[in-house]
Amino acid sequence: MPKHFYPWIGPAAILISAITCGYLAKSLFLKRLKLWVERTESSLGDLLLDAMSRHLLPWFMLGAASAAAQVSPLADNHQALIHKIVVAGFFISVTLAASRFARGLVRIYSVRFTASAAATTLTENLARLAVLGMGTLLLLSNLGVSIAPILTALGVGSLAVALALQDTLSNLFAGVHIVASRLVEVGDYIKLDSGQEGYVVDVGWRATRIRELPNNIVIIPNSKLSQAVVINYHQPDKELAVLVQAGVSYDSDLGLVERTTIEVAREVMRDVAGGVPDFEPFIRYHTFGDSSINFTVILRAKEFVDRYLLTHEFIKKLHARYKNKGIEIPFPQRVVHLKGQARAGNATRASESSP
């Protein structure tokens, strides 16, 4: 081996050792640590391991590169350059790992402290952007770049950006308001005053996506949603009343009708998925109609979409029970007396009876 290679044996050994230790730490240490975290059922531990696992080997390599440069025969300016590259790589790697951890943290706590099925992409992206922005500023500061002029330029340039992107920024801030107010959350079933209704799938930086029951997606700009009149069927509680309209003949025994109807309603609430078994159904008579006495049956569903199956099964069972009890559900009918025909009939009968 040529003599000029001897000074590089130490740096090469450091690099090879660091890469070997990195692989061992990733395959053995992290694996055992993951098994221990799974036994503790710690969500934060899972997030931390997930964020570190992709960057552990680069951290070993960056540290080894810095140490190898110190013992290498490189000139001082070259060593300083390598040190800056290592610092930059370390800050970039740590920032990416922290942004991934922050995104997962937002997702976990949004589910824990709200009824939402998942965090919105808006909150996740805002958390990532905040971490990436702080990491970038720290990186520039450690590289000797003054960040004061950058912040000044951003402050001046933000005015021009705000004027050029008024609609985009209005949707962004409206989305932040929607998420912060928690009046509409992911997983809620809502209905707008424009007629669209469905489950909130996501609140993004520009628009909110709603999945309607036919399984199509409605995209609504956040600014429009924040100004709309919205009915949220999941707040303050998912349970809601189900009103079923019915009518019986004027000849019916209304006491029997009430007892029979409530009996059927109890069976449906108990046996049909989506009913609330503990709820006591009731009816209220409200109208003397043209052909029937009309009333409302009040049931209760666990959430909005359960009302369809409850109503379906209730109408089937109630129709069969009324038929069995002899309770008539009349067809719409109206008695009409025509004065002209009545006079003509009376005159005909009078002429036939005269001698």
What does this protein look like?
The structure is a single chain. The chain is of the alpha+beta class and 355 residues long. The chain folds into three domains: 3-145; 178-232, SH3 type barrels (Roll), CATH 2.30.30; 240-325, Alpha-Beta Plaits (2-Layer Sandwich). Helices cover 59% and strands 14% of the residues. The protein has eleven helices and eight strands. It has helices at 9-40, 43-53, 56-71, 76-113, 121-142, 148-164, 166-181, 222-227, 254-271, 306-325, 339-353, and strands at residues 189-192, 197-203, 207-211, 217-221, 230-232, 240-248, 282-288, 293-301. The strands form two sheets. Strands 4-3-2-1-5 form a five-stranded antiparallel β-sheet. A hairpin with a 5-residue loop joins strand 3 (207-211) and strand 4. Helix 1 (9-40) packs antiparallel against helix 2 (43-53), helix 1 (9-40) packs antiparallel against helix 3 (56-71) and helix 9 crosses helix 10 (306-325). The longest helix is centred in the first third of the chain and has 38 residues, at 76-113. The chain is elongated.
